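Q: what does this look like with zinc ion bound?
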Amino acid sequence: MEQKKIQCKIPFQTIQEGTHEFTFIIKKSFIEQYEIEEVLDANVTVTVVFQKKTRLHHVNYSIKGTITVPCDRCLDDCVVEIEMQDSLIVTTASDNQDSTDADDIYYIKPNETEINISNHIYESIILALPLQRIHSEGMCNKEIEKHILSNEHTKQKNNNESIWDSLQNIFDN
Ligand SMILES: [Zn+2]
């Protein structure tokens, strides 16, 4: 995968064995790098607890904050609160190791000095977003909602008319 500019990295090589905490602030520009999701704004704090051990290392992270997306109904800004936790096991890749990372295992390549968990964090943020992004009841843009409602009404009216018309035809015959 190509290198993104804004990344969440743990300086694996320079830290001592033990537990370390890191905080990353995720803004819109981080999510935009992936060019997949349309976000209008983002303000998410990622707290990473990294346990460096002799062979297997543990990454636990929690994600908390808000993502602003266009509302599916009225297209206005809709602020969605997200909160989730996830973890990863980090281990050293052997020479003949297939370098593809499994979902929850991260293989450190021999020349890597940092653990880049950006893709994992990105995926967790996207997973934390609800499939339907709609304002809570009554919070949609009033003008647009009025428009949607009147459209639905017209459609219904037309349907009723056409049913009535066909009934009328039957009676007429
Ligand atoms: Zn809305």
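The pocket of zinc ion is lined by residues 71, 73-74, 76, 78, 134-135, 140-141 (CB under 6 Å). The CA atoms of residues 55 and 91 lie 6 Å apart.
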